Amino acid sequence: MGSPTFPSQRRAHSLLHPHQVSVARQGPDLNREGLAPLQVVKDANGLRFSLDGGRGSLQGDRPLTVKKIFQGGPKDLLQPGDEVLQIEERSLQGLMRLEAWQLIRALPVGPVQLLVRKKAKP
């Protein structure tokens, strides 16, 4: 089975205030493994969510997960505990949280493709 693709029809709105974050308004397309390709928009404040875990974290080597979604962030697409697997075409497997943060910081402002594994519902 191949990995999910990012639907080309999901585009961020271009009429945003420069400090707003836009997210694709369609719900995530989940496959059987709970994987969802998502589009968010990076602005001057980043992607507006923080990460937890990663290689060498205080709790040991763990997947990188969404820790907190900040005001103006993609709350309708992400939730704390979602595992971030890819940013654009770059896998986050085996990265330290700092390395993932540096990758995000280096991205240009604008639409960003994510691949996440949604947190299982209890």
TrEMBL record:
InterPro entries given in the database record: IL-16-like, PDZ, PDZ_sf
Entry's Gene Ontology molecular function annotations: CD4 receptor binding; cytokine activity
Gene3D superfamilies attached to this UniProt entry: 2.30.42.10
PDZ domain residues: 37-105
GO biological process, one term: leukocyte chemotaxis
PANTHER family (UniProt xref): DENTIN SIALOPHOSPHOPROTEIN (PTHR48484:SF1), PRO-INTERLEUKIN-16 (PTHR48484)
Protein name: PDZ domain-containing protein
Annotated organism of origin: Terrapene triunguis
